[in-house]
DNA sequence: TGGGGTTAT
DNA sequence: ATAACCC
């Protein structure tokens, strides 16, 4: 079948982008249903990072300060969302659910997934042709309200894609109680851009003839995923502000400014072209935990912060079952201007014996690890001089599978091959299995 | 402005 | 190790 897929590669893929609505707020509403019909914000430090649609109706926006949000909406209920555990867990349930339909699922953050459903669509198209039908119903919106041409198999395939997307959303709702948007198109860029066109809990399919319109509808190059803050500044300095500017800009000049690979990729993006594959994310490549604060200025405080971060992290690593071979400490030093840029980090190999016992029963001696992290800290900061930190982060990476004899649960890939999208039980089995084996 | 993540150089 | 990107 993979032969079919690559031979037919030129015909075009069918990609779905799934984007959950105000994800953290949804998770909080599931955790506490009394919050359902009230304006709800999720708070991290002094920021409302996201809020439900009731709160949005009353003027609250994402990433608004708590102060502004309360002014706009005094009845706003706030829950603390600094511990990402509930969101992370629900996020992986979403990815796993999509993985039951098809193995090609790529995560983007906690609340978005790309799914390459080319093969599913191909199967359904064959069934359809054998049954002698030529028409299928489109699910959700068609971008621009473009008319369908049933003789165009690209149209038909995308319409079948819209039905699959509808099934994704139906499964997310029925099994996890989550709502979200979906976009269906021939590549990741377009699927992502089109998924946001009808906003809560709706879906949209893009037909190729409307690609130009979709790209032209973007106001400013920064709306293109892949063109971030830095690149936007550099492009603006070249006089590039709109999508059209970027499309017609001399490629040679662009390559000199951004390097050939970035320049070529971005210019293709400006035309709505994106050949990047949907790369299955699988289990995470790293585990990190961070905390930000107003001020931390002594070695003792640093050590205390690290000792706060470690237990939760080690617990996560233990549950994952793999062993990290690298540990990293990241700091942010105070700077009145430019609070975003000034992160520094030091990393080192993690001696296997150090991590060996650490996950086991949670109350172990953390001090060798803490000492190691303090050494990393001293590589960045001369502790004899005054310092002022505003963030500390610990990250474990370079994860290696344990020899299969002594393995915990590896939820992710195991489940991909097991259950067909059935009706019965789920989740609980996996949790129990991991505990049973872990002890 | 949080608390995460990824890939490229 | 950093810099860029994503949410």
Automatic annotation (TrEMBL):
GO biological processes: DNA repair; translesion synthesis
Annotated region described as Disordered, given as residue ranges: 271-292
Compositional bias segments (type: Basic and acidic residues): 426-435
Keyword annotations from UniProtKB, A to Z: DNA synthesis, Transferase
GO MF terms held by the record: damaged DNA binding; DNA-directed DNA polymerase activity
The UmuC domain, residue ranges: 15-228
Stated family: Belongs to the DNA polymerase type-Y family.
Name of this chain's protein: POLI polymerase
Full-protein interval shown: 1 to 439 of 652
């Amino acid at each position: 079948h993979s032969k079919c897929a690559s031979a037919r590669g030129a015909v075009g893929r069918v990609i779905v982008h799934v984007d959950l609505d105000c994800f953290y707020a949804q998770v909080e509403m599931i955790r506490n249903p009394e919050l359902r019909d009230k304006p709800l914000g999720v708070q991290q430090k002094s920021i409302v990072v996201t809020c439900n649609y009731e709160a949005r109706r009353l003027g609250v926006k994402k990433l608004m300060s708590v102060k502004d949000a309360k002014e706009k909406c005094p009845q706003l209920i706030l829950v603390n969302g600094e511990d990402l555990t509930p969101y992370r867990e629900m996020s992986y349930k979403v990815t796993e659910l999509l993985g039951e339909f098809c193995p090609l699922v790529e995560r983007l953050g906690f609340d978005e997934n790309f799914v390459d459903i080319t093969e599913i669509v191909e199967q359904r198209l064959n069934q359809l042709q054998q049954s002698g039908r030529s028409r299928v119903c489109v699910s959700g919106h068609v971008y621009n309200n473009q008319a369908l041409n049933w003789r165009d198999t690209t149209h038909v395939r995308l319409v079948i894609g819209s039905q699959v997307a509808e099934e994704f959303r139906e499964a997310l709702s029925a099994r996890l109680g989550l709502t979200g948007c979906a976009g269906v198109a021939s590549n990741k860029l377009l699927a992502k851009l089109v998924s946001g066109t009808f906003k809560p809990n709706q879906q949209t399919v893009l037909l190729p003839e409307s690609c130009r319109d979709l790209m032209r509808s973007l106001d400013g190059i920064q709306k293109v995923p892949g063109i971030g803050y830095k690149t936007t500044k550099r492009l603006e300095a070249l006089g590039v502000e709109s999508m059209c500017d970027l499309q017609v800009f001399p490629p040679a000049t662009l390559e000199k400014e951004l390097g050939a690979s970035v320049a070529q990729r971005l210019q293709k993006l400006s035309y709505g072209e994106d050949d990047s594959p949907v790369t299955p994310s699988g289990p995470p490549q790293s585990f990190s935990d961070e905390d930000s604060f107003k001020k931390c200025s002594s070695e003792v405080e640093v050590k205390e912060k690290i000792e706060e971060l470690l237990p939760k992290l080690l617990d996560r690593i233990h549950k994952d079952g793999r062993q990290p071979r690298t540990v990293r400490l990241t700091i942010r030093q105070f700077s009145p201007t430019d609070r975003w840029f000034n992160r520094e980090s030091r990393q080192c190999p993690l001696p296997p014996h150090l991590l060996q016992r650490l996950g086991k029963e949670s109350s172990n001696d953390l001090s060798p690890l803490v000492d190691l992290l303090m050494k990393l800290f001293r590589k960045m900061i001369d502790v004899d001089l005054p310092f002022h930190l505003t963030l500390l982060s610990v990250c474990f990476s370079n994860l290696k599978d344990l020899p299969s004899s002594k393995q915990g649960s590896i939820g992710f890939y195991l489940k991909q091959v097991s259950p067909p999208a059935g009706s019965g039980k789920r989740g609980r089995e996996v949790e129990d299995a991991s505990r049973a084996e872990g002890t």
